[in-house]
Amino acid sequence: MASETDKPRSGSENGEDSPAPPPPKRKIALVTGITGQDGSYLTEFLLGKGYEVHGLIRRSSNFNTQRINHIYIDPHNTQKALMKLHYADLADASALRHRLDVILPDEVYNLAAQSHVAVSFEIPDYTADVVATGALRLLEAVRSHIAATGRTHIRPFGLRDFIRSDKKLREKVTHRLFGWYYQAGSSEMFGSTPPPQSETTPFHPRSPYAASKCAAHWYTVNYREAYGIFACNGILFNHESPRRGENFVTRKITRAVGRIKIGLQSKLFLGNLQAARDWGFAGDYVEAMWLMLQQEKPDDYVVATEEAHTVEEFLGVAFGYVGLNWQDHVLIDKRYFRPTEVDNLQGDSSKARKVLGWKPKVGFEQLVKMMVDEDLELAKREKVLVDAGYMDAQQQP
Ligand code: NDP
Ligand code: GDR
Q1: What b-and-e string marks burial along 182-200, b requiring 16 or more CB atoms within 10 Å of the CB?
Q2: Once rounded to an integer, what is the mean pLDDT over residues 373-387?
Q3: Neighbouring residues of 278: CB distance < 8 A, sequence distance ≥ 6
Q4: pTM, two decimal places
Q5: For ligand 1, mutation pick of 41, 115, 212, 371 (most atoms within 8 Å of CB)
Q6: CB 6 within 8 A of CB 102
Q7: Separation of alpha carbons 370 and 324, rounded Å
Q8: Is the link from the previous residue into 196 a cis peptide, with omega within 30 of 0?
């Protein structure tokens, strides 16, 4: 699905001598992690705002674009295809720089990550490479792209003058430079620091993933202060949806509820049920990402519902919704406990509410029910395949 050849967005593409009338100017967004949960919601949101969205995907032996297939339009349909996919990996600095030079985005959203906390204990080196150094590679690509192309919005005031200028002037012009960059930060950075957690709460990361996100956070702050890049950290608390990866606890539970209700499974193995999380709806949270980049000044924001629930409470609502008792089905398996746990996350998002005018629309129970509804439908479709002999019921997610 990614383009095989790239053309710069300027210049004649129709091969005719007479210049075609310029197309209406759309803002261009570049999204890493577009195939993930948030990437898919953000792309829908930006397309709704009239953006052209370019997503970076990594090569895999199978297509992994299930979450965005419904908005994909063949690129040969140039009028309608406003989402474009390109191969690139956060491990590949030259590919990132190349994509910036060709796509010339107005806004960059860095959502790509090895995003599973428990898995980061298994593959810490890789996690750091993608989550921490990957963010640094992208920031550096943005910085060097600006330096090479002079793509600042202040002319003739260039980057070199900007770097030389005094601090006061720098602060004044920062928000007008190109380089709108969003970094997907995480409440995991707070780790063991007790709630409520806000922008001023100290970080105490409890996993290689969280430590890597802290590094990415500070790289982003540093590139903002050193080079005037309009770079924002969104410190987002857990957000879920029917598109959530199936090995995160919420989706693991709602998938099991659907399958147990339909008779495809009877047990669900989980780890620590007492951990509390501030769970919101991913569709609401991508709006906050966009809002951060529309402000006069770059800054960092906590995004949260401000309500915490334990895994056990999630189980109660999810199983109860379909008339089941979770205690009849859940078994504890030690393998799902983490070497160091994050016990209690509950955000204070008053800054985002005040400055961005953002607030969540979907509440906890509505979120759980939305996920169970979708996973019941999915289980029904699976059952058809199982009954027809095309699928093994034991083939659990
Ligand atoms: P997902 O795990 O659903 O998506 C991660 C995305 O990153 C996928 O598109 C994945 O591609 C891509 N990716 C992974 N490794 C690389 C790589 N080496 N190069 C390029 N792309 C890569 O995460 P979410 O959508 O849930 O989260 C989005 C971001 O927000 C992540 O950075 C996450 O850490 C952060 N975050 C998430 C929160 C949440 O509750 N969801 C809360 C706070 C922060 P592929 O499809 O090929 O695997
Ligand atoms: P989290 O999400 O670690 O908060 O990271 P996850 O759903 O994996 O865990 C939440 C809590 O549930 C407990 N838990 C289990 N977790 C999983 N995955 N599987 C289980 O079987 C299980 N049993 C209990 C965990 O111990 C934990 O306390 C998510 C990711 O999206 C990160 O990328 C993001 O940065 C943070 O949210 C905010």
Answers
A1: bbbbbbbbbbebebbbbbe
A2: 96
A3: 187, 237, 238, 304, 305, 306, 307, 308, 345, 346, 347
A4: 0.91
A5: 115
A6: yes
A7: 17
A8: yes
